[in-house]
Amino acid sequence: MLKKKLYNHCKKMIIEKLEELEQREKDLQIALTSENKSSVGDKHETGRAMIHLEREKLGQQIAESELNLQKLIPLKNHFGAEIISLGSVVHTDKGNYYLSISVKSCQINLKNYYCISCQSPIGKLLLGKKMDDQINFNENLSTILEIK
Fold it and tell me: Coil, strand or helix: which one is 10?
């Protein structure tokens, strides 16, 4: 149940981000169309160039968000293991983590969970660890209490 809630939280965050990015892309398309109708000259060309650059950045962000959504799909039915891996929920004495994709944290059953990727600094430290192992992050020692 906990993993399902964390999975749904991550999925919701990515879908919301995709919707926001797609709306910004539509707004830029409208701005580009209106820029085409304005007067010719250096200002016009600069405006068009800025809009094109912004559209390229948005395209990259959309592609990254879609990739994150694809990374999330296999985690839907992840079962716990004794060793921390992608899809694990980890409780330490300093915090709780869901190793999936990086999105904002959430609160479930009065506990905060950090949704992190395996490529994040803490994610790298947690991967492959077992219960009672310790990690040292920013000179703070954390003990792994539970893995789900």
Answer: helix
Question: 100: which strand partners?
Answer: 117
Residue 44 binned pLDDT confidence (cut-offs 50, 70, 90): low
pTM recorded for the entire structure: 0.87
Shared domain for 114 and 140, answered yes or no, is: yes
Per DSSP, the chain holds a count of helices (H) and strands (E) of: 3, 6
Per the structure, the complete domain to which residue 32 belongs is given by 2-75
- Are 93 and 65 in contact by the 8 Å Cβ rule? The answer is no
What amino acid occupies position 53?
L
**The dihedral of CA 99, 103, 105, 108: what is its sign?**
negative
My answer on whether 24 and 70 are in the same domain is yes
